[in-house]
């Protein structure tokens, strides 16, 4: 699978731009703030129906404009596919495949997968549990449609239960029986989600270790520890035991929405004990494992989007990374960087073909195509 053409209108800093992509590695070169990352984010939007950087749709519209539009042509299984996304302030987001609008955006998830590696990935280590849950859920949901449906259903049920708790707290009364219907539905969907998360991690962690080793960190062990109240105790009992607490808090304090992942290196939390270099390698290996897992389960190559990572790694790791992602098992790759000469040196050293674009002030110009040798 690959993207062939992209047409951007009023998206972030772009008034209008068109790009024709190379089937292999595409490099976007330009100063910070020029719009390089926004190209990758537009592709992520077409893949996942949302921005990688800003989940609020209206805030991705160009300043002082009322809408944005993304239009693209993809090659999938030898067939040409048109994707369209339109967002207008105050209106429903429109997503179309070959001019036919999706009834539900969930129908699109997993059809055109993409994996982004970005400096913002550090949030997976530094931020709270919600960031790590969303990362895990986002991977599983691309392959398992029922998981995505259960996740959406669980969140709707949780909202209803929390609204009831808040209402009863506000009005000063409590009716335990009114929660039974919501609790039963939480139990059903919560157990299913928890089981899938555990199955995913059991398969994912060995893949993660392999990529961490390949990046030049062999001899160190990586792990993802699943922390869940549903492992530590029976979900039904947890809801009963914590009912008094919930009614005073006004929200549900137990469930899979409290799950977390502990990122470990050599059996210690990497957040506290990992060096900056170790954390960078850890996150890149994590994303490459994500790519490999999706490739296996979706039976196609996702797009790999590498945003401004060359100056975050030493030369040895950069060369190993690009040797890994430039081979055919990784399919189409899009790279951003500020240094044109650095990019040329990297691809000269690994002797891989690439297409280079210059990005400046929302303008995109192809400047070089290096053929295979």
UniProtKB/TrEMBL annotation:
SUPFAM superfamilies: P-loop containing nucleoside triphosphate hydrolases
Keyword match ATP-binding: yes
Annotated protein name in UniProt: DNA replication and repair protein RecF
Keyword flag DNA damage: yes
Protein family: Belongs to the RecF family.
Any one Pfam family match given in the protein's UniProt record, by short name: SMC_N
Species of the source: Wandonia haliotis
NCBIfam families, sorted: recf
Keywords: ATP-binding, Cytoplasm, DNA damage, DNA repair, DNA replication, DNA-binding, Nucleotide-binding, SOS response
PROSITE patterns named in the record: RECF_1, RECF_2
Entries under PANTHER family matching the protein: DNA REPLICATION AND REPAIR PROTEIN RECF
Gene responsible for this protein: recF
Principal place of residence: cytoplasm
Location in the cell: Cytoplasm
Role played: The RecF protein is involved in DNA metabolism; it is required for DNA replication and normal SOS inducibility. RecF binds preferentially to single-stranded, linear DNA. It also seems to bind ATP.
Domain RecF/RecN/SMC N-terminal: 3-362
Residues involved in ATP binding: 30-37
